[in-house]
What does this fold into?
Amino acid sequence: MRIGIIGAGMIGGTLARRLVALGHEVALANSRGPETLRELAAEIGAKAVSASEAARSGEIVIVTIPERAVMDLPKDLFAGVPNDVVVIDTGNYYPARDGRIAAIEDGQVESGWVGGQLGRPVIKVFNNIGFKSLLEKGQPKGAAGRVALPVSGDPQAARSKVMHLVEDLGFDAIDVGGLEESWRQQPGTPAYAKDLDAPRLNAALASAERSRIPEYRKAANDAVRAYFERPQ
It folds into this structure.
């Protein structure tokens, strides 16, 4: 499969490495230009490209950048890209890092806001797993304790395609439903950053309470703020 990745940080770089190893053709972009990715791309077997080229390089395009950086992407990034190209959003909203985004604070699900900025529907996945777990914890289907990942978004056909990709990477894919249900996997929720197997992830998703989103967000944001403010 041809896959474009916009963002070459911890998650983007790890996905690129793992997807190439599985035999996919990966076009990798960042905000600084393809010349800054030549070494990494050569090492892992990906192709270094611009963001606009990455958006036109695959059957699936993964956007994996901080929420604040979504606003810096070209407004016509997906102009002319066929509607059947699936766009994945791996992002999370942390006000301490991203600044305050009013629409999200007012109740819009994070990936709904991202999709609005991109002008495309998105599938939310890979947002609740750390890069080391993504790199190291994939296991064959049926393995005991296999880590599960939540997948949400519309339309259902796109969600199913992404779920197959998650399974190929060695994780059980849990169908959360449409994008409006993606709040269940946002930062601070019971499903967030726990590396749970399928039964425990399903239980965590079910236990989330939408009325507690501000509480969940505050807990995650406080953790990020503490990380940024730690002594160097």
Q: What stands out?
A: The chain has one domain: 66-229.
